[in-house]
Known about the structure:
Layout: H1 3-31, H2 39-63, H3 69-73, H4 77-87, H5 94-103, H6 117-122, H7 124-135, H8 138-149, H9 153-177, H10 181-190, H11 195-209, H12 213-216
Helix pairs in contact: 1-2, 1-5, 1-9, 1-11, 2-7, 2-8, 2-9, 4-11, 5-10
Amino acid sequence: MNWLEGTLMTGTAVAFATTFDDNLYLTIFFGKVNRTFCPRHVVIGEYLGFTALIGVSLVGFLGGLVISEQLLGLLGFLPIAIGASQLLKHEEDDDVVHTVSSSLKTPQARRTPQESFWATLKDPQTYRVSAVTIANGGNNIGIYVPLFATSTLPRLSVIVSICYATIGLWCFLSYHLTRQPAIAFVIARYARKVFPFVLMWIGLRIVMDNGSYQLLFP
């Protein structure tokens, strides 16, 4: 497996594992579209919030330029810990699931006035979506920082591109899931159980690929 294949696999795994919850909140937002709150507010707000998370996480990449790979690889234990904590939760996040389900029972009209991109960018409604994305992205930073810190510039570019493409996919799916509440409920209830294992796999790869285990077991 060459570096591109491995990076595509890692990028896809981390993109889906870290942005899946965005799908739930985006579905809620799309379900509340009305004459003053249109889909463009949701999409642009989501991308702005996600860009802020990426910007903060790039600190890890800059640190990787001056700190040894073995030491940086120890940060891989962070996504392992995040995944383990999610796995060991005894209670489902039923509040989110029920919120998604209830918010989709009565789809609202989508006849909204057209706005220019700049008007949407300046609209406070856009930043309401961004605020939710950022508030929900604490774990994302904890995963992106070690991953970025142990990545070369080409690998980083591929991973970030996949993450942005995945956000676009969630926006598309979430918009249509407002008309299919049963599907949204199934996804929210069951698919999220897989992602703790994905996060632990990502963390383990960071530790192993950088030889950081040798610091613990010389």
